[in-house]
Amino acid sequence: MKQVEQLYQKKVLVLGLAKSGFTAARILHGLGAFVTVNDAKPFEENSEAQELLNMGVTVICGRHPEDLLDEGFELVVKNPGIPYNNVIIESAIEKGIPIWTEIELAYLISEAPFIGITGSNGKTTTTTLLFHMLNQDRKKPLIAGNIGTVASGVAENATEENVIVTELSSFQLKGTDTFRPRIAIVTNFYEAHLDYHGSFEDYTASKMKIAQNQTSEDYFIYNADQPLLSAFAAKCKAQLIPFTLKGKTEHSISADDEFVYWQGEKVIERSKIMLGGQHNLENILAATAAALLWGGTKETITRVLTSFTGVKHRSQFITSWNGRKFYNDSKATNALATKSALEAFPEQIILLAGGLERNHSLEELRPYMERVKALITFGETADRFAEFAGDCGVPAITKAGDMLDAVEKAVSHSEDGDTILLSPACASWDQYESFEIRGDAFIDAVLQVTEANE
């Protein structure tokens, strides 16, 4: 880990704990900064705060004092989820105090270079896919960021032999200053998190901070099929690597109906790729380009693409049984994500959908409902989904009480060649604590039903 002189004896406020705040505070304390941690959770319930106090870190818990910044802090490191209209953050901005997320700290302490991946959709799949490609090619990758592993915690143990493959959200990138990935990837832009950012312009500008410090020695991989991203790319200083699904190109990465190409040469036949869907093909192009730029081989990339079936809960292939294929897309917590899933599969889908009622429109799904031969609904939105599906002309609509009941009813409506897809288009919290638990319940139900009918 690099020693960062600019942080030595600097007064730093870490706002919000959880995994990222705890790790940042611990590292900053180790670098010789004078660290104060402020977290809303009461001290007696806050194991992270208790541990930091034992290290000698100043801890203020259970409230956010309005006069907190009167202590003369020179830097604020905030939890990414804390919005910029937070009273303390607004006050720090007025005082001209720099505001970081721990991604900036990770970059400053890391001996390893970074590959950064962001975008509205596809970040996790692209990050995971790229990690597997580099790992199988023995490039010693580490995986970090929004995918679940705190980047600064990974960076403190990384060496020059490693590369840190990092999934990055707009929340994380907005709080960066000098962060410079050697390869930056932006998968796509869609409207998201406007409640946090206030505008689409701020959202996209935050995402594009991934490339703001890149130079001509670096690479920027982006979706050339989106005009807005192409316009952003034109302002970048890095070497541009556009990807497109609109046919073969000679100087970058591309795909047509039959092949994936790198600089005009065939990499893999599309029919051999395990991960289905147009949206996943974008992720495949981005990950493949990055792997090749980092010295990966076409042979390894082909091996990964012919075996990788997806990230858990994201169009994850579960099993084949009596000619039916089962897919778990529990991560689809809104209509846009379910639309992408429906678009990815051929017709004759039995769709399992429903969940927490947020009164979101389902209209984005209408053009794709003709692919659905049966809908199994559940949760708070079950009746609204049923009414919508009926209006779309879905032939069979059934309400289920729980996931096992839903899978049993889906199987009863299915035939040889059908796809049975969990893609709820809703959050899980009406019935499950998380989309992961919901997805695991689906997997368990599928295995129970198929094994019982062997």
UniProtKB/TrEMBL annotation:
Keyword set includes Cell cycle: yes
Record GO terms (molecular function): ATP binding; UDP-N-acetylmuramoylalanine-D-glutamate ligase activity
Signal peptide: none
EC class name: ligase
GO biological process: cell division; cell wall organization; peptidoglycan biosynthetic process; regulation of cell shape
Domain Mur ligase C-terminal: 313-426
Cross-referenced Gene3D superfamilies: Mur ligase, C-terminal domain, Mur-like, catalytic domain, NAD(P)-binding Rossmann-like Domain
Domain (Mur ligase central): residue spans on this chain: 117-291
Enzyme Commission number: 6.3.2.9
Keyword annotations: ATP-binding, Cell cycle, Cell division, Cell shape, Cell wall biogenesis/degradation, Cytoplasm, Ligase, Nucleotide-binding, Peptidoglycan synthesis
Compartments it resides in: Cytoplasm
Catalysed conversion reaction: UDP-N-acetyl-alpha-D-muramoyl-L-alanine + D-glutamate + ATP = UDP-N-acetyl-alpha-D-muramoyl-L-alanyl-D-glutamate + ADP + phosphate + H(+)
Annotated family: Belongs to the MurCDEF family.
Protein name in the entry: UDP-N-acetylmuramoylalanine--D-glutamate ligase
Protein's organism: Planococcus glaciei
